[in-house]
Amino acid sequence: MGLFTVEEAREELARLRPVLDELVAVRADAAELGAALAPGGPPTPLGGLPEYKAATARLDELMTVVQQTGAELKGFAPLLVDFPADLEGAPVLLCWLEGDPALDWYHRADLGFAGRRRLP
C-alpha cells in the first residue's frame, strides 16, 4: 500500500477506532483469562481455556484488520499505530498512541518513537 496524507490517515484512524476500541477490550479479557489459567491463577467469570483461545483468535483478526489498511501496528500494550507518509519531502510515520484523542504526531522513519513530534 502507498503513503497516506495527513488527512487520509486521520480518516483511516476514524474508521479504525471501533476496531482499536475492541482490540483494547479483548486484550484486557485475554490478559485476565491468561492469568486465570496460570497455576494458582485467580478465577475469572470470563471463562477458561476455550474463551482464552477465542480471545486470542479475535485479537489476531483485529490486528489483521488494522494491517490491511496499510497502517502499521507497532505496539500492542499500549496500542501504537503508524501510518507511512511523506512530510515536507521526508519519509515519516504519522503516529497514534492509545489514549491520543487524534492523530497529531509523527516521527521520522529512522528515529522511531523517541523522535515523536507534534504535526505542524
Quick recap of the structure?
This protein has 120 residues and is α+β, with helices and mostly antiparallel strands. 43% of the residues lie in helices and 23% in strands.
The largest sheet has its strands arranged as 1-2-3-4-5
What structural class do the secondary elements suggest?
A: alpha+beta
Helix content: 40-55%
Which stretches are low in confidence, meaning pLDDT under 50 for 5 or more residues running? none
User: Which band does the percent of strand residues land in?
Assistant: 15-25%
Distance between the termini: 25 Å
Q: Tell the overall outline.
A: elongated
Largest sheet: 5 strands, antiparallel
What do the pLDDT scores average to?
A: 96
Number of helices: 2
Query: How many beta-strand segments?
Result: 5
Helix and strand sequence? HHEEEEE
**Gyration radius, to the nearest Å?**
17 Å
